[in-house]
From TrEMBL:
Superkingdom, taxonomy of origin: Eukaryota
Subcellular location as annotated: Membrane
Source organism of the structure: Mustela putorius furo
Keywords: Glycoprotein, Membrane, Transmembrane, Transmembrane helix
InterPro entries xref list: CDC50/LEM3_fam (IPR005045)
Protein name: Cell cycle control protein
GO cellular component, one term: endoplasmic reticulum
PANTHER family per UniProt: CELL CYCLE CONTROL PROTEIN 50, CELL CYCLE CONTROL PROTEIN 50C
Family designation: Belongs to the CDC50/LEM3 family.
Length: 344
């Protein structure tokens, strides 16, 4: 009996304030004044932030030009897959009425392209993209191997369907002399993508590193020859490739293509005047009833031309204020009724 009593006592929790649940506690007692003040302050904050975000988004200068129908001959040519080796170009002149001050960014925009399909997203090899195993193509169906069994690099449906139009912006200086607007193709990716998720094989010669693999069927050249001007922008570290590999959540999306190099005539941005887009049309969209466009845009501290966040804050603030006035009316009504019964 004595041993049993000792064993039962040994299983008792320690005699501490924490284990005996004797810590000091605070019970929050909300008053009507406190609750109403909280709702009022939250409404003011949300409305203020929403208005600031909307004004910031409205200050962005943006121009979008859809070119699927303008380049109709090229679009029709690309409907036939046998014409993949035939080059087709078109020029789209336009007038920029206002100067686009500061940094200017060029995007390509796709309509009706579903990058968010489950099987499409899974069709990639992360170990291959990190340069650890170029022949790991087990998750890349149906673009894992060529007809002769050679592993594809980069493999998968996302890589095979890369956006491959070439877009060059020209500025008509003095309305007669066209000059190419200097654009940078680097610095357009997320830092984590460039330095964490994508890596080339550890070799100074990429053509040797990718030996034993073949290019995707829809590509015109292998991954180690994507950029002939900058050797560092080749392989899995090519900026255009990395941008495309980040799948979009909606069927209508735009992705960063180039950014303005602010030199010569463009130190202050894009001056007003006559411009033209010279496009080498490669990416087919008419087969799935899609469309393509090119977008020139400036940015502010809050990002691009998107009103969603500002409207979300504004609506939240308006609903909070509506709740504040409703609760205040009910509180005053009940307070008057209580005073009436007290006087009785």
């Amino acid at each position: 009996m004595k041993r049993t009593s000792e064993e039962s006592q040994s299983r008792l929790p320690d005699n501490s304030a924490l284990k005996q649940q004797q810590l000091p506690a605070y019970r929050l007692q909300l008053t009507a004044t406190g609750v109403l003040s909280g709702f009022f302050a939250t409404g003011v904050f949300c409305l203020g932030v929403g208005i600031i975000l909307i004004l910031s988004a409205k200050s962005i200068k943006e121009i979008e030009i859809k070119y699927t129908k303008i380049c109709g001959n090229c679009a029709k040519l690309r409907e036939d897959a046998t014409n993949f080796d035939k080059e087709c170009t078109c020029s789209i002149p336009f007038y920029l009425s206002e100067t686009m001050q500061g940094n200017v960014y060029m995007y390509y925009k796709l309509y009706g392209f579903y990058q968010n399909l489950y099987r499409y997203i899974l069709s990639r090899s992360n170990s291959q993209l990190m340069g650890t195993d170029l022949k790991d193509v087990g998750t890349c169906a149906p673009f894992s191997r060529s007809h002769d069994g050679t592993p594809i690099a980069p493999c998968g449906a996302i890589a095979n369907s890369i956006f491959n139009d070439t877009i060059i912006l020209s500025y008509n200086l003095n309305s007669s002399i066209p000059i190419e607007v200097p654009m940078l193709r680097s610095g357009i990716t997320w830092w984590t993508d460039k330095y964490v998720k994508f890596q080339n094989p550890r070799s100074k010669n990429l053509s040797i590193a990718f030996a034993g693999t073949t290019k995707p069927p829809s590509w015109a050249k292998p991954v180690y020859e994507l950029d002939q001007e900058d050797p560092e922008n080749n392989g899995f570290l090519n900026d255009d490739f990395i941008v495309w590999m980040r799948a979009a959540a909606f069927p209508t999306f735009k992705k960063l293509y180039r950014r303005l190099n602010r030199i010569q005539y463009f130190t202050e941005g894009l001056p007003a005047g006559n411009y033209s887009f010279n496009i080498t049309y490669n990416f087919p969209v008419t087969r799935f009833r899609g469309e393509k466009s090119v977008v020139l845009s400036t940015l502010t501290w809050s990002g691009g031309s998107n009103l969603f966040l500002g409207l979300a804050y504004t609506v939240t603030g308006a609903v909070t204020w509506l709740a504040f006035f409703s609760m205040m009316a009910i509180h005053l009504m009940l307070k008057d009724r209580k005073m009436f019964f007290t006087q009785q």
